[in-house]
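User: I'm putting together notes for a lab meeting next week and I want to include a structural view of one of the chains we've been expressing. I don't have a solved structure, so I'd like a prediction I can at least talk through. The sequence is below, exactly as it appears in our construct file.
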Amino acid sequence: MGEVGDVAGAMLHALQAAMLSPWLYAILVGLAVLDVFFPLVPSETALLLAGTYAATAGPEPVLVVAAGALGAVLGDLGAYGLARALGAGLLDRARPGSHADRAHTWARTATERRGAAVLVGARFVPFGRTAVTMTMGATRYPLRGFVAFDVLASVVWASFHCTAGYVGGVTFSEHPVVGVLCGMTIAVTVGALVEVLGRRRDRAAAAAATPAPEPAPSPPRARP
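Assistant: Thanks for the context. Below is the predicted structure for the 224-residue chain, given as structure tokens.
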């Protein structure tokens, strides 16, 4: 646990230093691109921190959102294109019952039921962005529909995290780290709520699609 805490602390320190860098917006773009391939990349934390600093005359919130959304779209297009080139066999490589197998199964089912709109909710589910994007590419989902909803999902995602950080920054203007933690709490809570609502919707859709059992035939009436 100590090593994990040290890594997290070093990461937060590096991100804080990036807030004062003239390359901040390029860094935000790069992190959002890498996040789809390596979900542990702290792109959300970077947006939250940038939003927190934006509350105290730091980076421009509009540019923070634009950088995050641009990086997200570029990363998703790269992942989609890679998965599309590899084909459906990419999904079959996952070991049955593994986390990757369950994630792709969930993504495929959600895409079949909700179409490209699933991209918006998947942004707030752990590993959801990667699973849905790769699955849509591997199954050759139409590019036009993918791009339209991916742009929407990216803007919503970047705006939400920047706003959550901004709220934390306004509330705890003298303690930016506390502001980030406040923003992270908001983001995690909303993400959990989105996942719960999505699972309930999927269960309801599955129940509605299940045909009702046919009534048993009535026994023949006895003749008088």
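A couple of points you could mention at the meeting. The two ends are 83 Å apart (CA to CA). DSSP finds ten helices and no strands in the chain.

User: Perfect, that's what I needed.
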